[in-house]
Amino acid sequence: MQGKIAKRLISTAAAAVVAVSTLTAALPTQGAYKQEEYLTWSQLDERWSATPMDSTTIRSSGCLITALAIMIMDSGSLDDAAMKNLGIEKPEDFDPGVLAKGYTSIGGFGSGGYIKSWLDIQKLVPKVKWGYDQNLKSVESKIEKTELDADGNEVKKLLPDKAKVAAEVQALLEQGWYIIARVNTAYGGWHWVYIRGVDGEDIYMSDPANLNPLLYEVYPDGLQGEYWALKGANSPETEYVPPEQFEPYVNIEVVTPPKTMYAYGEELDLSTCMIKRSGKDMLGNEWEEDPVLLTEAENVSYSTYFFDPNYAGDYELDIYTTTPYAYGNTSVTLTVSQPVGEYYLGSGSKTQVYTSELGEKPMMTLSSGETVNVTECRGKLGHIESKDFTGWVDVSRMIRNNSTSERNKGDIDGDGYIDKYDLSKLSVYLKRKNELPECISALTEAERKAADMNADGTLDEADFIALLTAIQY
Ligand SMILES: [Ca+2]
Ligand SMILES: [Ca+2]
User: Fold this and answer.
1) Which ligand is nearest to the CA of 461?
2) How far is the CA of 394 from the centre of ligand 1 (A)?
3) Do residue 218 and residue 325 come from a single domain?
4) pLDDT in tens, 191-241
5) Paired residues of 227 in beta bridges
6) How far is the CA of 410 from the centre of ligand 1 (A)?
7) Distance of CA 372 from the midpoint of ligand 2 (Å)
8) In this structure, are residues 52 and 60 in contact, taking their beta carbons and an 8 Å threshold?
9) Ligand 1 center to residue 442 CA distance, Å?
10) Which CATH number do you get for residue 262?
11) Ligand 1 mean position to 415 CA, how many Å?
């Protein structure tokens, strides 16, 4: 159920963004305001946006109807008589769609959805009394202000005298009038908003197309002039307290991680990954969704192209989510292990052998030229084992021996000659043999095979003598 509510709120907020691009300037980029739900009713809300108004719909032309619905709620005017007229049983059933249906039921819409008679509102909601339709005088006086444009040039602008407008609107509120006023949109459109209150020079509104309640943030040119004055069951707020501001956010959390440890060459598997989203929406409601599979999650994205199973290392799986009001992300580290096989340590390098695959307790250090045969890898650590010895060696510092080429007997280093360098290698091997566990060797397997002069499966003094003899002749 939580999930469902959350989804609906998101779709409402998504509609608000559509409104921003089509009707008004911009969604607030910093923070949102804690507001009663009815104060944020939008004409674009899918719950009622398709409701017809003569030949049009609330979505296209329902700003005034939506503003009226907000006024009815804010003025406490929805009584039993109104609900009966509107065909609803309880106040919770009321919304802009219900009001539009009410107007339709009394033939209240003219062609194009305009409201035919100012007085019709009283027929539907008797507690609302029609006052008048006039123009604000204060909007005619503008203040000339010099501002810098994007290129740094001075431009003169005519801006509303906010103090004057605030004083006139405040005076109307104090006379008990509820105000629905016209603004011009950025595209020159004709739009109505409900005035909630005045705080200093700021005017707070309910905009049927935008969640931002600050009039001048959405409409820098302010009120156009025309307004409807109405009375309701209560009186408007004359000592207006602006709504509390907060930061909306969205969190995404990995509830069940995907497979994170991969053998070399193993394909990426995200099938078990469960994520969960939560957040605080533009209305200040905290929401939480049920955990879902990452691969089936809506409004969540991640990329897999980064992952290369044929290249050992750590990869960050970044998971993103967006809502119209916030962005969230998280990440999971995926590790592709080193391939198994033979590794040797290049000259001048050192690497550690640990007791466990977690890299705990170093037990010995390998030196250059030493070779191990790794049978299993966890990340950069490879398992080595022989009689009386087991360990995990950091093979990321070693060179993987891909060479499988056969060597001639005696040519241990494989350079084509049987000489003192081969003898030297065998000598080092024989010296170290007794100090190292069997699984660590100074020669690779191919080298050992080439060094086994008498082909008896072991390397010892006899091979050394045989090699020495081979060099002398
Ligand atoms: Ca050689
Ligand atoms: Ca031998």
Assistant:
1) 2
2) 29
3) no
4) 999 999 999 999 999 999 988 899 999 999 999 999 999 999 999 999 999
5) 134, 181
6) 7
7) 20
8) no
9) 16
10) 2.60.40
11) 5
Using CA atoms, how far apart are residues 192 and 205, in angstroms rounded to an integer? 10
**For 305, phi and psi rounded to 5 degrees?**
-60, -25
| Ligand 1 geometric centre to CA of 351 (Å) | 27
The total number of structural domains in the chain stands at: 4
**105-139: b (≥16 Cβ within 10 Å) or e:** eeebbeeebebeeeebbeebbebbbebeeeebebb
Distance from residue 428's CA to the centre of ligand 2 (Å): 15
Four-residue CA torsion sign, 104, 106, 109, 111: positive
Closest-approaching ligand to the CA atom of 449: 2
CA dist 242 and 245 (Å) reads 9
- Asked which of 181, 212, 242 is the last residue of a domain, the reply is 242
Per the domain annotation, does 303 fall within a domain? yes
Please report, as a single letter, which amino acid is at residue 354. Y
Report which bound ligand comes closest to the CA of 408. Answer: 1
Look up tokens 């003598």; give the residue.
465
Cα dihedral across residues 90, 95, 99, 105: positive or negative:
negative
When the pLDDT of each residue in the chain is averaged and rounded to a whole number, the result is 90
- What is the domain range of residue 435? 405-473
Return the number of other C-beta atoms located less than 10 Å from residue 204's C-beta: 22
According to DSSP, the residues that pair with 276 across neighbouring strands are 253
CATH number for the domain spanning 367: value is: 2.30.30.40
Output the CA 435–ligand 1 centroid distance in Å: 25
Is the full-model pTM beyond 0.85?
no
